[in-house]
Structures are given as structure tokens and as C-alpha cells.
Design brief:
Helix content: 25-40%
Order of helices and strands: HEHEHEHEHEHEHEHHEHEHEEHH
Number of strands: 11
Strand order of the largest sheet: 4-3-5-6-11-10
Largest sheet: 6 strands, mixed
Strand content: 15-25%
Shape: globular
Structural class: alpha/beta
Length: 348
């Protein structure tokens, strides 16, 4: 984008004085990028940015954390997880707190580390916390492929895998008003842009697929402001997102997983919004069925934040009992969480 074009877009967004436009970014990485680039401070008060349910840690119910803790307390089992999840509270404690009490919890940086660890230590069962959306699901499928190839019966997944289309429909039906969506960029690289074009047509709400740089996000917001009330779809991330998506990634997902109902933090069970292991691979499942209980901390309003009913700073716990150092809700734990990003960038 030429500098003059960017200046024009910034000027128009700053001086916009039309009807209020409420734009939801669904991807947690977009949420972080919007804060990092200081984009809210550029926009007119008539343009409202809302963070949606696109942070995988933020939408994980407490039953999943509780199950991981139960497994980690077994002497023969080691739970592997990413950094953000380790600090999310279950019903009574987080994985980090459980580790402090002797639970076998190990933080890793890549799911493929699970294959190496399980191969080197046949005395323990290794359970990987497979949390995420369509973006990370192909990697978990690759882990299973390697486990089968190397006969690693001591490697299992506890899955809490979500898919985007159904939760977007849920937000439109039950959440706050949304006039336009910044579609999840990472997810779209896997599923393809056609999925969001169809959603736009179905819901009558404009969608724009975009990347993660400041100018890309500003162009997406500008496009959605112009499209308000008209519907429509644009793919502004064609360098990474094809109409059909990543066919190889979709093939390996389909090899190991099938669609299923899934429970979302504060939203209950949403039909067809998740993925579970196929029956023929259930031996690699660590007990993912029926993990629906969701004991959110008293006073926490993460659920209302995730569907755009309130801003994070409207939660009575925000910045008081709930900060990144003393996080009560999952949205304040993850670096992709809307509460965390509001807090660190002092957004109002």
C-alpha cells in the first residue's frame, strides 16, 4: 500500500462521523496486533472494535483444565502444554498451581516435542493438551501420524478443538451487535476464504480476510466501514489465503478428526463447532469426552466479553482483582486474550 493511500485511510477513519460501526475481529492474533499497533487510538469514536471468541485458551472450559490436572497427578503420566494454558484456572487451580503441588506438567513449544519425549521415555504416558482451532489441528494430526508410525502407544491427546463458522453464527444470534467481521486470518489459511464468503452471504454481514500488519488491519477496517449495511466479502490476504484453503492440511484433519458438538467457555455447547478423534483412533484419546462443565470464577464476565456484549474494561473485576499477574478469567491470561490486550495497552 502506498504511503499516500495509507494516510488517506487513516484520515478518513479518524474523521469518520457516520453511523456507529461495530467491527469484531475473531482471531486472537488480530486482537494482539490491533493493540500492538495502537489502532484504537487512530479511529473515530464512531468506529468500535470488538474482540471475539478467537483466543483458543480463552474459550476452553474449566472441565478440560480439571481433567489435565487429574491426569498430571498420576505417577505414570506427564501432561504437556503450551505456556498460556498452564496459567488458566480450572475449578480449583491452574496447571501451574498443580505443578507446584507435585503434578507432572511440562511446558513445550511445539506439539512435535511430544513425539520425541514419548519415544525416549516409554515408562510414562505423555498427554498433550491439544487446544486450538483449525489452524493448529493439522499439527496435532501430524503428531498422531508420527505416534502411529513409531508405535508410541504411550502418547495421547486430550482434545478441545474448535471450529469457527458455528461460533460466529452463535455470536451473531446471541452476542452484541456486529456490523462487520475481520475474519480469522490464520484459520482462513487452512479453511480457505470461501468459507467466510459463504458466511457473509448467509448472515448478510460483511467479512474481510486480512493479515496482521498495521496497514493491513487499517485497510480491513476501512473496507468494513465502507461496506456497512451492504454486506459483501473481501480477501485482502491473498498472499496467504486461497479460496479453497490448504487442501493438504484439510486432508490430514479429515483423516483423524470428525465434526462434533463442543463446549465454549461461558457459551455452553454449540452444535457442530468442534472436532474429535475418529473412533478408530480413540486409543490415542486421553479422555476428552464429556468435558463440558464450566465453573467460571464468581464475578468473571469473560463470556460477555467473548461475544461482544461488553468491553473488557466493563467487567467489574478488570484491573482490580483481575490483572495479568492475578488473572481470574482466561481472557486476562493469554497474550491473545482481549482483557490482557486492553490492560497492557490501557484501552477504554
Amino acid at each position: 500500500m502506498a504511503i499516500d493511500d495509507l494516510k488517506k485511510i487513516v484520515e478518513e477513519l479518524r474523521n469518520y462521523d457516520g453511523e456507529e460501526v461495530r467491527i469484531m475481529e475473531v482471531c486472537g492474533t488480530h486482537t494482539a496486533a490491533i493493540s500492538e499497533n495502537g489502532i484504537p487510538s487512530i479511529l473515530s469514536d464512531k468506529i468500535k472494535l470488538i474482540s471475539g471468541p478467537g483466543c483458543p485458551v480463552c474459550v476452553t472450559v474449566t472441565a478440560v483444565i480439571d481433567k489435565l490436572i487429574e491426569l498430571a497427578l498420576r505417577s505414570d503420566t506427564i501432561v504437556l502444554t503450551f505456556g498460556d494454558l498452564i496459567r488458566v484456572k480450572g475449578t480449583n487451580m491452574s496447571l501451574a498451581e498443580a505443578k507446584g503441588e507435585g503434578a507432572n506438567v511440562k511446558m513445550v513449544y511445539s506439539p512435535m516435542e511430544a513425539v520425541k519425549l514419548a519415544g525416549e521415555d516409554q515408562e510414562h504416558v505423555y498427554v498433550f493438551a491439544a487446544i486450538g482451532f483449525e489452524t493448529t489441528t493439522p499439527v496435532y494430526a501430524m503428531v498422531l501420524e508420527e505416534a502411529i508410525k513409531n508405535s508410541l502407544d504411550n502418547l495421547k491427546l486430550l482434545t478441545s478443538l474448535k471450529t469457527m463458522p458455528e461460533v460466529i453464527r452463535f455470536v451473531v444470534k446471541y452476542g452484541g451487535r456486529v456490523d462487520g467481521f475481520i475474519a480469522p486470518g490464520h484459520v482462513a489459511t487452512i479453511t480457505g476464504s470461501d468459507e467466510y464468503k459463504k458466511l457473509s452471504e448467509e448472515l448478510g454481514i460483511p467479512f474481510v480476510v486480512t493479515g496482521f500488519e498495521g496497514p493491513q488491519l487499517l485497510l480491513a477496517i476501512y473496507s468494513l466501514v465502507k461496506m456497512k449495511g451492504k454486506g459483501g466479502f473481501k480477501n485482502l490476504y491473498k498472499s496467504a489465503v486461497r479460496e479453497e484453503g490448504n487442501t493438504k492440511a484439510k486432508e490430514i484433519i479429515d483423516k483423524f478428526f470428525v465434526p462434533a458438538d463442543a463446549s465454549w467457555r461461558g457459551m455452553g455447547k454449540i452444535p457442530g463447532s468442534g472436532l474429535i478423534l475418529k473412533d478408530e483412533y480413540k486409543k490415542y484419546d486421553a479422555g476428552s469426552d464429556m468435558l463440558d462443565e464450566d465453573n467460571m470464577p464468581p464475578g468473571c464476565r469473560c463470556a460477555d466479553v467473548l461475544v461482544g456484549k461488553i468491553k473488557p474494561c466493563d467487567c467489574p473485576m478488570f484491573g482490580k482483582k483481575c490483572t495479568p499477574d492475578t488473572a481470574h478469567g482466561a481472557c486476562m491470561v493469554s497474550t491473545e486474550g482481549s482483557c490482557y490486550n486492553y490492560f497492557i495497552s490501557n484501552r477504554k
